[in-house]
Amino acid sequence: MARVSLPMWPMGAEQGSWRLVVLGSEDVPALVEIERRCFPGDPWPAQAFAEEIGNPVSHLHGLVDMTHDAPRLLAGFCLFWHVGDEVEVLNVGVDPQWRRRGLGKVLVDHMVDCARALGVTRLVLDVRPSNVAARTLYQHGGFEEIGRRKRYYANGEDGIVMCRWLVQP
Q1: How far apart are CA 60 and CA 42, in angstroms?
Q2: Using the 8-state DSSP alphabet, how is residue 132 labeled?
């Protein structure tokens, strides 16, 4: 399975120097903590992240502050699958203490760049209608609503299906 190179994203000194890195099993506790803070009603368990690390179609990348000494500071992550000519975005999270600094945009832009490098035609994702911040982030990243999945989430909430075309159909 093809892998993509991860660029350095220099940010302002106030925001730190962030680097996109491939995440591994040592990062699972930090991932679970961010997930719990981002999605308190329905967080992914550690086992789910651990399984994705070993999944050959899975890409799990994180934003790490390179000015912070060990243990490394993980501010956010993105998880996506590359299957055929499509990237499916499974999970994106930015720790609430690091929000409103453009890190979510960095992650979305990074996934689009990865998708281009992988030669896919589109990225797809599901998002809750109630997650207005995420929907706005994805819309600004070029995603558009293409459908709904009724009662998609465990709490009965629908899922909005969004798509970012890299090659027009």
Answers
A1: 19
A2: H
- Give the CATH number of the domain where residue 42 resides: 3.40.630.30
Residue type, 157: E
Q: Is the dihedral of CA 8, 39, 80, 130 positive or negative?
A: negative
Residue 68's domain comprises 8-120
Are 155 and 41 in contact, with CB atoms under 8 Å apart?
yes
Do residues 134 and 39 lie in contact, with contact meaning Cβ atoms separated by under 8 Å? no
CA atoms within 13 A on the CB side of 123: 26
**Tens-digit pLDDT profile for residues 67-110:** 766 667 899 999 999 999 999 999 999 999 989 888 999 999 99
Write out the two tokens for 18: 């962030």
* Conformational region of residue 47, where left means phi above 0, alpha means psi within -120 to 50, and beta covers everything else: alpha
- Residue 19 is assigned to a structural domain of this protein: yes
Question: Residue 133 falls within a domain, yes or no?
Answer: no
> Using only C-alpha atoms, what is the Rg of the chain?
15
pLDDT in tens, 14-40: 345 788 889 999 999 999 999 999 988
